Amino acid sequence: YGGIDSVLIWPTYPNMGIDNRNQFDLVRDMLGGVEGLKEMVQSFNQRGVHVLFPYNPWDQGTRDSGQPDYISLASLYDETGIEGFNGDTMGEIPYDFFTQFNIPLALEPEGGGSDENLWFTKMGWGYWQYNYIPTVDRFKWLEVRHMTNICTRWAQNHTNDLQHAFFNGCGFESWESIWGIWNQLNLRDAEALRRISSIQRYFAEFLLSPDWEPFNPFTLQNGTYASKWPLGSDTLYTIVNRNTENTTGEQLVVPYEETNTYIDVYHGTVLEPIVGSGSMATLSFEIEALGYGAILITDSAITPSLKEFLTMMNEMTKNPLEYYSTDPIYLQQTQVPIEESPKVNEQPKGMVFIPANPSFLFQVQGIEIEGCVSFSQNYPGADIQYSILNETLAQCSHSGVISIPSFYIDQFPVTNADFKEFMDDSKYVPADSHNFLKDWINGTYQKGWDNKPVTWVSVNDARSFSVWAQKRLPNEWEWQYAMQGNDGRTYPWGNEWDPSRVPIPNTGRNMTAPDDVDAHPEGVSVNGVWDGVGNVWQITNEYYDDHTSSLILKGGSKYQPQGSLWYFPQAYKLNQHGKFLLHTDSYDRSATVGFRCVVDSA
Question: Of 543, 562, 565, 544, whose CA–CA distance to 553 is shortest?
Fold first, then answer.
């Protein structure tokens, strides 16, 4: 759709709160660490793309960094070269916060900002209500250099926000990956954005005109609205047709000068004005239904650069926008295969036999805050697409009868002692070692931690252990069946929540050790499987599409940061799962994520 001018890199929500890493920790845990981020920013900048990161002011329940947030933000700027931040959930950037910076950061509050703060808040998102008559950007009217990026993240048709952006000379938030939920611009919107962004970039200086005149009164067609952008002796008009039918013929009355050239920029052609009485002329051209127009009046000769641009626009607009589909575009998800383990005839030590079930009712619900539970509930393409349930699209609620062969499952999650045996025997060294076994000291687990579930391991680390142990990771439905049995119970012990059967939640800002895997006999499942809920999350399947990989986690953890609804939600219920967005092993490893294994029975 014509490229991007800036990018917002977002490594925090919705994963934040899985453990006590704060927003700045998660940024630093990205691939390559600070040096990798610095190279990434430079690479974007070399291509003319500006880079912003988020600031999540609600993150007050994870690790206390021991310094004000503005110092942490300034440090990231110094170390990585980021050029600004988006103030998540912030209606405006407080002046006191701004004055702490001695660096030229671009500040972009999600709520857009306020009149009095426009002098230092140069950007903002625009959550607008769209009327037939276009809304005027108040902030740009007050300060024409202000950049509003109009945003309608869940829309599957962006005609309203694209037309409002073009009319106001604003930016458009081409937000297609919404926390791992893919919401691609439809083909018409993408083509419209390619056209209008080309015009906005080429005539960017005009869009900073202090003499901007929205609703130029000399449009001649009902439902067609124009903004006038004078610059020196030249003038640009950006026009939108809010009608659902084409408008043709006389469109615009403009001042006439014999030496002027009148150009239909959108179609890349020169117009012949119809001179009327006095010093005015009429311009005739076509604007298609819910389409766009742009007129340049210039007293200068057409430069080679402008000629090249007009040729490009002429070629670009040969097909009308109606040629392009408005159908939503969805991505298919693929499950990373879990290969069978070597099959066994006898029950392995430390494992529990789970009998075959030819008709297991597999019911599960995604609990993502956005897309499933609280905002845009059951959004198409959210959560997971189960091929085992013959789902044709990712969705939040899942239900179907499946056949599960018999298998053995670890009675307990893999412990630190188990993992130490693997490390000593295999000499395993991960390719990306950052955060690997982070709570170990000098190559071994802490004293008294031998029977606690191993954490700070990625799904790749867990797979390596499984192969060494001649086992495999469980499919989600196998894990759930082992914990749930045949009666569809909500918790391993029954249908009523009982906090005495699980570890006491940690609601502080520092991590505490997981409980021992055998500390809660009251929480054992009907099949005799221990420690399924409330201690550490447990790894099951990985899914991916063309843009995002995610890991399905079961059982919840004891860590519950306080103070915000935006933290990674818990899933103590067996018919729920957490969807953790994957990045790289260093980022994916967590203090609250462990695993157990299964073995296929002969």
Answer: 543
pTM over 0.90: yes
Q: Which residue has the tokens 């916060």?
A: 97
Confirm if 132 and 99 have CB atoms less than 8 A apart. no
Q: Taking the C-alpha atoms of 266, 269, 274 and 280 in order, what is their torsion angle to the nearest 10 degrees?
A: 50
Q: List the alpha helices (DSSP H) in 22-158.
A: 23-28, 33-46, 69-80, 95-98, 138-142
C-alpha–C-alpha distance, residues 329 and 381, integer Å: 10
Beta bridge mates, 106: 84
pLDDT of res. 424: 98
Task: Compute and round to an integer the Cα radius of gyration of the chain.
Answer: 29
The pLDDT score that the predictor gives to residue 99 is 84
**Reduced to 3 states, what is the DSSP secondary structure of residue 74?**
helix
Q: How far apart are CA 185 and CA 194, in angstroms?
A: 11
Which of 30-34, 374-378, 506-510 bottoms out in mean pLDDT, i.e. has the lowest? Answer: 374-378
Residue type, 58: W
Partners of 451 in the beta sheet? Answer: none
Which residues on neighbouring strands pair with residue 86, listed in sequence order?
54, 108
CA distance 356 to 198: 60
Does 35 score more than 80 pLDDT? yes
Q: Report whether 307 contacts 255 (CB < 8 A).
A: no
Q: What whole-number distance in Å separates Cα of residue 320 and Cα of residue 270?
A: 19
Minimal CA–CA distance to 237: which of 257, 263, 256, 259? 263
Per-residue pLDDT band for 173 (boundaries 50, 70, 90) equals: very high
SS3 of residue 258 by DSSP: coil
Evaluate whether 459 touches 542 at the Cβ level (below 8 Å): yes
Work out the mean pLDDT of the chain and round it to a whole number. 96
Separation between Cα atoms, residue 291 and residue 302, nearest integer Å? 26
Residue 461: what pLDDT? 98
pLDDT tens-digit series, residues 543-589: 999 999 999 999 999 999 999 999 999 999 999 999 999 999 999 99
Per DSSP, the residues of 339-379 read: PPPPPBSSPPTTEEEE--EEEEEEEEEE--TBTTTSBSTT-
Burial class (CB in 10 A: 0-12, 13-18, 19+), 505: middle
Residue 454 scores a pLDDT above 80: yes
d(CA 255, CA 288): 25
